[in-house]
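Technical annex B. To support the medicinal chemistry partners, we prepared a structural model of the target in complex with uridine-diphosphate-N-acetylglucosamine, based solely on the information shown next.
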Amino acid sequence: MRILVTGGAGYIGSHTCILLLEAGYDIVVFDNFCNASKESISRVEKIMGKTIPLMEGDIRNKEDLNRVFERYTIDAVIHFAGLKAVGESVEKPLEYYDNNIYGTLVLCQVMAAHGCKSIVFSSSATVYGDPHTTPIREDFPLSATNPYGRSKLFIEEMLRDLYVSDKTWKIVLLRYFNPIGAHESGTIGEDPNGIPNNLLPFIAQTAIGTRACLSVFGDDYNTVDGTGVRDYIHVMDLADGHVKALDKMNTFSEVMTINLGTGKGYSVLEVLKAFEAASGKKVPYTIAPRRAGDIAECFADPAYAKAVLGWEAQRGIDEMCKDSWRWQSNNPNGYKESNS
Ligand code: NAD
Ligand code: UD1
């Protein structure tokens, strides 16, 4: 069985490629490298001792996608390709709607034209907006406060409409909580462009000395210590959720919407402490004002994933921090050879 992995050179995609290969799936990676490097795939090849078919192209370009479907028989698609920076999406909404929504639309058209109707889509916990309570279940009300989140909501709706029109589609919407960590080899990991927006890469770059000091965005939330609480999930556990979704998708007779989280929330200061313990480094921090658009607390109810996929996260916060640190300390400049 061959799986097309759009965005497969990116952070979550590259880790998922490893588990797909380990599970015996053939894959083909499709990426335009707007936020990734070919080096990630070279490193996955080294880890696995296998050559990975890689096709460069854009999901918005039918010809690019047709080339893939003409060359390979694709049984299912895992669709990671997309833009994901919340702040940038506010500044460039049209780019986000074009890349994420239009790109997914073109992908589905090309899939249908080639008789491939199985897709696992990367959604996000951001579709829950500011939840009225935690833990968050899949049937909670949905909302979005920025174009990135709205693009995920629209795509979910588009895929549901597609299923209503043609029940031979197999569709799984995976709502990720906060993926962190890296493959245990320390050779692949998250490699953000410029100043990281997300907590873990910022902490890791501060620990290595690339950044001077972490700003903790707000200490006056109604949480355990006043700082924001999130459900951090090891990227390898997240990757495993995709393999389990693929394994099971033929047994589903509806669009499946599934949270991938651990069910446990950690505050910013708790994560900081765990990272310091894992790395043996002191991470300087200062308390800064709340970040616009942030919520106090967000963590999953992962019971449905366990019930339908037989999946649950295996790795705890210490392992997540240890693996993030191994990647960061082995690769202080990510996939780039130098800072220049
Ligand atoms: P990433 O940026 O590392 O990976 C996305 C990949 O898609 C990159 O390799 C990029 O080059 C590629 N890509 C983007 N637009 C493309 C296009 N038009 N055509 C072809 N390739 C394109 O991001 P990630 O963290 O691995 O996230 C993967 C998916 O998961 C995204 O859809 C993201 O929105 C979603 N997600 C991520 C998180 C997170 O915290 N990382 C949380 C929830 C959901
Ligand atoms: C952010 C996005 C969300 C996206 C998710 C995963 C925003 C508003 N939300 O969520 O849509 O799905 O990433 O990509 O951007 N923090 C600091 N200092 C920092 C960075 C973060 O204190 O330098 C705090 C935040 O306030 C938050 C926690 O750390 O409490 C986690 O932040 P982050 O990693 O950015 O993830 P989310 O805010 O959950």
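Notes passed to the chemistry partners:
The longest helix spans residues 93-113.
The domain at 2-339 is CATH 3.40.50.720 (Rossmann fold).
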